[in-house]
Design brief:
With 505 residues, the chain is of the alpha+beta class. It folds into 3 domains: 286 residues, Rossmann fold (3-Layer(aba) Sandwich), CATH 3.40.50; 89 residues, Sandwich (Immunoglobulin-like); 91 residues, Immunoglobulin-like. The chain is elongated. It starts with 5 loop residues before the first helix and ends with a strand. The N terminus is likely disordered.
């Protein structure tokens, strides 16, 4: 998080009804630092919501309540902690939860590692943290405030803390680390994965407090609707969130490292463990400069490159891509990326239908990263069946970009609309594809009014049938109506259905 927009945040949150006396629509017993919440009915899993800087950022006692409400609605037993209650010892229990949401300060650190701040003030004479300091698991950091950097130092965990003091996460666990730059800290992310974490959701650069808060809330809202991690991030970006542009800096992007197909339901069904992790061999004690820096200014801008550095060509890392050449709807595409170890990988898949999906990951110690996702039906368009996959490999600020494509095979029925965004009184073309000479019915389901427009026809020799529709005047411009397009056909003894959407603007 940056100092920019801290004051603006209070205004934004007030507009959204987040800062108010009662917090979310859940009542809690008063507690100065957080509220262990009553278990939801028949809880399916455990969740933890952490707001270590709730008071400092002016979020008030309602900080974290929107996230708590969404996780409770999904059936989780939720614990929420604020401010100094978010201690080093609490961070050592993260692996015992199915879902963790932490709205905190973070940053890349020490050549690929990362630091994640707790709400516990740093005191090197505190015997409760002595073992963590000795093995380099925690370091003191300063954090951003409305008036610059904090005068106090807080303990922050590193990848050594994850490796030495955490057990094994549930197999489909989700960690939403709503702070800055951790997707650019591959060592930290890979250590979490080596401890079994299913997926890490965070940001690749510095983001503003406002963008962090609103994007994190929107992400959990999409997950609560049943989307997987990858689709939820895509939906957040489609709503105009999930990116941030602090003044004078580059664009930060919300993304993930790990399995982007995990849903909240899958996370809740993964068994948790309360077994105490075996103590690993202590790491060599770092030098004082590395172990206890006087100040690590989190969320500050990276130095502006000099003219000489900008002009000098820096060769990007090597990059090779392997994927399935043909993928049938309902199966998974698997992309294997090879580069040098600890390379940040940005993945963008563009489908002929106009849909897309994005992900951020990193190569492991062998230089390999794998990204898999389910191929959805109706991602084709008329005479367009190839998806384009663009990979950016980033190492030491140098970038290599490659684009490959693969063939999307036909489903039992596919439907598409061109264009996907249209105005009132303008036309869209509805396309359906099935076996040749098959009767097809297409229905347009309009919002609110309950209107339905139907078309029927028979596919030609190549399996296509199309219809023109002129958007009626009963829908007004500027309201961003989403129209559901549903195609139905009989294949053998059963009916098959495919859906897509288009927007009226």
């Amino acid at each position: 998080m940056t100092t920019r927009s801290l004051l603006l945040l209070a205004v934004v949150l007030a507009v959204f009804g987040i800062i108010h006396q009662g917090g979310a629509s859940v009542s809690y017993a008063s507690h100065p630092h957080g509220r262990p919440l009553a278990p939801a009915r028949s809880p399916a899993g455990r969740a933890l919501v952490l707001e270590p800087f709730a008071t400092q950022l002016g979020l008030g006692p309602g900080a974290g309540d929107p996230e708590v409400s969404k996780l409770q609605a999904a059936g989780f037993d939720v614990t929420e902690l604020h401010d100094s209650a978010v201690t080093v010892q609490v961070m050592a229990t993260l692996w015992q939860y199915n879902v963790i949401y932490a709205n905190t300060h973070s940053d890349p650190f020490n050549g690929g590692d990362g630091v994640v701040a707790t709400g516990q003030l740093a005191n090197e004479n505190d015997p409760s943290v002595a073992s963590y300091v000795q093995d380099g698991s925690i370091v003191p950091v300063t954090v951003s405030t409305a008036n610059g950097q904090s005068s106090e130092h807080y303990w922050a965990i590193t990848s050594s803390f994850v490796r030495n003091h955490m057990g094994t996460f549930p197999g489909h666990s989700i960690l939403v680390l709503n702070g800055c730059g951790i997707l650019s800290a591959p060592t930290f992310a890979q250590t979490l994965q080596s401890q079994g974490l299913g997926v890490l959701v965070s940001w690749d650069k510095e983001a503003t407090v406002t963008d962090n808060y609103l994007s994190g809330n929107a992400f959990l809202n999409e997950m609560d609707q049943g989307l997987d991690v990858s689709d939820a991030i895509t939906a957040v970006k489609g709503a105009g969130l999930g990116t941030s542009q602090p003044q004078g800096q580059g664009t930060a992007t919300m993304g993930f490292i790990g399995d982007g197909t995990i849903t909240l339901q899958e996370a809740s069904n993964s068994p948790t463990s309360t077994a105490v992790p075996a103590t690993s061999t202590p790491m060599p004690v770092p030098t004082k400069a590395a172990a206890t820096p006087t100040s690590i200014p989190l969320n500050t801008a990276a130095p502006t490159p000099t003219a000489t550095a900008t002009a000098t060509a820096i060769p990007g890392p090597p990059l090779t891509i392997q994927l399935k050449a043909r993928v049938k709807p309902g199966t998974r595409q698997v992309i294997v990326i090879r580069s040098v170890p600890d390379t940040i990988i940005h993945i963008h898949v563009r489908f002929p239908s106009g849909d897309s999906r994005s992900a951020t990951t990193a190569t492991d110690g062998k230089g390999i990263a794998t990204y898999a996702f389910p191929q959805r039906a109706s991602r084709i368009a008329y005479q367009q069946v190839y998806a384009r996959v663009t990979i950016d490999a980033i190492k030491n600020s140098a970038i290599t970009t490659k684009t490959v494509q693969y063939r999307i095979l036909w489903g039992p029925i596919d439907v598409s609309v061109q264009p996907r965004v249209q105005a009132v009184s303008k036309s869209v073309t509805l396309w359906a594809h099935a076996s040749s000479h098959t009767s097809v019915r297409i229905s347009l389901l309009f919002p609110k009014r309950g209107n339905v427009k139907r078309f029927s026809g028979v596919t030609g020799a190549r399996g296509w049938v199309h219809f023109q529709y002129t958007i009626g005047q009963f829908l007004k411009n500027g309201n961003n109506h989403t129209v559901v397009v549903r195609a139905r056909a009989q294949v053998g003894n059963k009916f098959v259905v495919a859906t897509t959407t288009f927007q009226i603007v």
